[in-house]
What does this fold into?
Amino acid sequence: MHRRLLAVAAVAALAVPALAVTPAAADISHPTVVSADPVDWTPHVLDGTVWSLALVGDTVVVGGAFTKVADSTRRTTYARKNIFAFGLQDGRIRTFAPEVDGAVYALAPGPDHSIYMGGAFKTVNGNDQRGLTRVSLLDGGRYPGFAAKVNWGDVRALVSRGEKVYAGGTFSAISGVQRVGLARLDAYTGAVDPAFDARLAGPGLKRTRVEHFDVSPDGRKLIAVGAFLKSGGADRTQIALFDTSGPRAVLSNWYTDAFKPTCMKGFDTYLRQVKFSPDGSYIVVAATGRASSAQKLCDAAARFETRGSGAQEPTWVQRTGGDSLYAVAITGPAVYLGGHQRWFDNPYGTDGNGPGPGAVSRPGIGAVNPNTGKALEWNPTRSRGVGVRTFLTTANGLLVGSDTDQLGREFHGRLGMFPLR
It folds into this structure.
């Protein structure tokens, strides 16, 4: 078997070297599909769930809801609550260990060797700062000048672009400024951009929220998904595209009614993640919903082109036949999808009755052709659990964060990396 084993015995804690902020994951493309054999040197998260991943220089930052991590050999265990970091090249666990009292759902690279964190926490290193913070990768110290805090709820997605940081979640205000579910902040102070307001609303919904969003590699477009029905006075059911090239959040005339049909009762949104392609020409959306139907986009992934205008229909739809998809990554040769699915290419299958004609086994993780949406041969498998929660594309390969400990038929505690071949 293809192995990339590094001898990592008792892992020494390392300080983070001085490195520049790397491009966002959306900017990374690959020449080929990654190997189905994960590297052996990544550390293990021993409990809970990995929700978020980010890369700063050669340091991978891992966020989630957990309390313990171990080195690749599982001989040394470290107390790390909800956040830790390790070396991309060797897996060595860093000394970085800020104190947050709740789950970390979102991460984004920051300037000067720092990381933005978003989540359900209320304090950072003993200081009140709900849902948002910026900390140093050198010592885990909080930047008190970055004073942003949400009024309630949580932050579920973050993207940094230049001197701006975008935040999405369940909040309705940041630092006293009303912003429902989506805001743009100053990268250094956390001050809310006064000109940027998506004006999201969900008349009749229990709570308006942004479940996830992404910003195009050139920074000129933002696509958001979640529990909302309108942006300003315009109908936008669960998905909205904005022009972010100027100072304001300008709602695009691009829209789709594909997500208007409801899934199982109780889902105010069934969209879970959305990503731009590396060239920004299309997006892929991953969805749950518990209602398999050839007329609905529940429990499915769908590609939409973003360079057009007006009403849009999906270019293709990948259906699991009743199992949720939660995460997506796009690298050029492949669209990677993760959840707790059992099958791909399963439009006629149902959750209770098994696979339909043409279905292929892809437990927990898989890849599809970006042009057709059909399953690729890549099939490493993983123990399904609730599902993959996050991917991180790097120049070295594809990192995966989830809630289970089997990946590529090997033990990998909630974290693993598939290298380029």
Observations:
- The chain has one domain: 25-419.
